Every structure is written in structure tokens, then in C-alpha cells.
């Protein structure tokens, strides 16, 4: 033990003598390089950890959010779950990527129940969102169209979504049913409904308007390409596992 300490002391003295021999500029440059490297590494790790990895599942209740959540996580639909009031909130590696070799970044997915009294929850999760999946029941579309468009309008006019350009995927679900409407039809109808909402909300006295962002181009019929954030429409079925468009959307916006 004593010997070790003596050896260490010897090395310490040798190192000190060596440093004294070096021109001082060289020491300063070396110290500056070390300091700079540490700074860059710290900054890089800060940037990395602040990148959001949260995907928000939204949409009316009954549209299929919970089914989609389980399908993404477990690769099965957990049949028998009733339309729920509780939210699902979990961080996991997508089921479809569990077999992939190498590192896969886990995704944080929040399923926000569509019940009106739970909607404040959205304001809490949207600022952290890397993307929003808006689930629409394509089979029972017509009866829920108006309510669905209103909910969608509320999300698209949020500053946390529009200004931060949070990408959105409108997922036309339940297309395993032959009577389901096509995504082209759903897109057109939702645009029409949002156009109507825009007009009617303009008519309300400005004091009552809670919209944070004006949607679309004044004087032009609304369509999703006018949104500041990117809005895409795709179809699939959570129940039968046809969710690859959702998985792709997640991977595009939560970098592995
Ligand atoms: N045919 C069909 N039914 C589905 C699909 N996804 C969900 N459902 C059904 O729709 C109902 C509501 O689903 P759920 O996930 O609870 O909706 P949530 O209220 O949005 O969470 C359940 O009976 C599901 O089995 C689908 O892709 N196809
Ligand atoms: Mg649910």
C-alpha cells in the first residue's frame, strides 16, 4: 500500500516537472481544447434530451384510440376493453420495432380520452408533443362528423400546435369494415366542416373567441394544406393491426 502511494507521488512529480518544461502557450491551448470539448458535449446532451418524444392520440371517444394504443405497444388489441375514461400513458419501444437490431428510441404515447370534461388534459400534453394522431371513426363517420371537426378545429387553432408546427396525422380508423368511408371523403368533409366553423366563430364577438390562431387563408375555402403545421390524412384499422401508417408517422417525428 505504502509502495503504491510512493509510486503515485513519484508519477505526480514527474508529471509536474514535464508540464513545467512545456511552453506555457501549449498548456493553455490544451486546457482550452479540453474545456471546449466538455462544453460541446454538455450542450449536445442538453439538446438531445429536450427533443420531445411524446405522441398524443386524440379524437372522439369511440374512435379507437385505446385500441390503437395497445396495438402499437403490444401488437394486439386487448379485445374486451370498454370505451374508457382513463387515459393510457406509457413509454415503450413500438411492438413492430422490438425485433430490430440496435438501439431503438422508446416513444412516449398518451391516449387522451375524448370526453369533454377531460379535454383540459390536452392543454397539458400538447406543448410537449412531437406529433398528434387524430383518430376518426371512418365507419360511423357521418354521425360524428360535426363533433369530430369541432375537436379537430380546437386542436389546430392552439398556438402550441400551429406556432410550433406540430405535425398531425388524421387517422381514418376502422377501414376493415366495408362500409367505412374513404380517407379522401373524410378529408373533404372535415375541411368543409372546419370552413363552416371558421365562419361561424368569426361571427361571434371577438371577446368570446378563444381561438389562439386563425386557420387558413381569409376569403379562401379551407383546406389542410393551409395549416402552418403539416397535416396528413391516412387510413387503417387499429383492431386488425393495420397501423403501419401510424408507426411510420411516429418514426418520422420521434427520431431513433
Ligand atoms: N371494426 C373496428 N372496430 C374498432 C377499430 N378500432 C376500434 N374499434 C372498436 O371501437 C370501439 C371503441 O374503441 P376504443 O379503442 O375504446 O375507442 P376510444 O374511446 O377512442 O379509446 C371498441 O368497440 C373497439 O373494438 C377498428 O379498427 N375496426
Ligand atoms: Mg379510450
Structure write-up:
This protein is of the alpha/beta class. It has two domains: 2-48; 52-253, P-loop containing nucleotide triphosphate hydrolases (Rossmann fold), CATH 3.40.50. 45% of the residues lie in helices and 14% in strands. The chain contains eight helices and six strands; from the N terminus they run H-H-E-H-E-E-H-E-H-H-E-H-E-H. It has helices spanning 2-21, 24-50, 65-74, 120-125, 141-156, 159-162, 183-203, 244-253; strands at 54-58, 88-92, 107-111, 129-137, 168-173, 231-235. The chain has a six-stranded mixed β-sheet with strand order 2-3-1-4-5-6, with helices on both faces. Helix 5 (141-156) crosses helix 7. The longest helix is centred in the first third of the chain and has 27 residues, at 24-50. The model has no long low-confidence stretch (mean pLDDT 87). Guanosine-5'-diphosphate is lined by residues 59, 61-67, 81, 83-84, 114, 173-174, 176-177, 237-239.
Quickly describe the structure.
This protein has helices spanning 2-21, 24-50, 65-74, 120-125, 141-156, 159-162, 183-203, 244-253; strands at 54-58, 88-92, 107-111, 129-137, 168-173, 231-235. By secondary structure, the protein is of the alpha/beta class.
